[in-house]
Amino acid sequence: MSMDNKKKGSDNLSSPLSKVKGLGSAKYGVEDWWAQRLLALVMVPLTLWFVASTLGHAVYGSPESLRSWLAQPIPAIMMFLLLGTVFLHAKLGLQVIIEDYVGNPIAKTIMLVANNFVCFLCAVVSIFAVLKLHFIDSGVFSSSLL
Amino acid sequence: MSDDIDIRAQRPLSPHLQVYRPQITSVLSILHRITGVVLAAGLVPLVLWLWSVAYDLEMYECISRFFSAWYGKLALIGWTAAFYYHMANGVRHLFWDTGVGFSKGAVVKTGIWVLLFTVLATIGTWYYICFVVA
């Protein structure tokens, strides 16, 4: 395949009006597609681990049992990873749905922005809670020097 | 841009839902999307639950009560089923992404496996919760 007539960054076939209107290919999206697959791959073991370890004690257990479980570093780190990947994966998935079904450009923009904000906020809030439970509530780090 | 939208609104869509009988392919495909939305929606209570354990035990009690009631348990079972379906079908998608499993027979067979896994895993999980742990 000859690449002679393909100058990087220049586009000789679009009219100026179409360029201004933003018509044609977005030239973006593969990275989202790939990220979604990588996240999905990582989430298979992560979610199964979550189901296995919370079955029983955290699901219908007590706040104390959740605290003592999260006091250990590996469950806390795994929860951190799980929450991060879950909300990234959810954000990407919901993004595709919004792009597919919302036609109005203003509504679409608002919903895409809201999607990003809400998923990020949920990730931060939940990870924050996990970190608080691990570092503060567990009592592992209370120092007699303080 | 708005004149493009108006033109699109005026053109009719070629009928599909009124025409094609649901197939295992199309149904499982839209179910993957639907379960994805259900899972995403279910993450919100999860965030609130985690937060409440750390910062608001009153909220924790409230959430615990909701999910211990029959309607809460039903919601959890539904969410679990959505999770197992989405994960199993997601793995099926990952195989497709490598180019494997596109023959008509394979698509139907793996689709049935996904449904079987969903049912068995959901029943197994909740049997474990209700009878082994509690």
Report how far the terminal alpha carbons of chain B are from each other: 59 Å
Alpha carbon gyration radius of chain B: 20 Å
Note the beta-strand portion of chain A.
under 5%
Order of helices and strands of chain A: HHHHH
What structural class do the secondary elements of chain B suggest? Answer: mainly alpha
Structural description of this entry:
The complex is a heterodimer of chains A (146) and B (134). Chain A is mostly helical and 146 residues long. In chain A, 70% of the residues lie in helices and 0% in strands. Chain A is elongated and about 65 Å long. Chain A starts with 15 loop residues before the first helix and ends in a 9-residue tail after the last helix. Chain B is mostly helical and 134 residues long. Chain B has helices spanning 2-10, 24-55, 57-68, 70-97, 104-133. In chain B, α2 (24-55) runs antiparallel to α3 (57-68), α2 packs across α4 (70-97) and α4 (70-97) runs antiparallel to α5. The longest helix of chain B has 32 residues, at 24-55. Chain B is extended, with a radius of gyration of 20 Å. Chain B starts with a helix and ends with a helix. The mean pLDDT of chain B is 91. Classes of the chains: A mainly alpha (146), B mainly alpha (134). The A-B interface holds A 21, 37, 40-41, 43-44, 47, 51, 55-57, 59-60, 63, 66-67, 86-87, 90, 93-94, 97, 103-105, 122, 125-126, 129-130, 132-133, 137 and B 1, 5, 8, 33, 36-37, 39-40, 43-44, 46-47, 50-51, 53-55, 57, 60, 68, 83, 87, 90-91, 93-94, 97, 125, 128-129, 132-134.
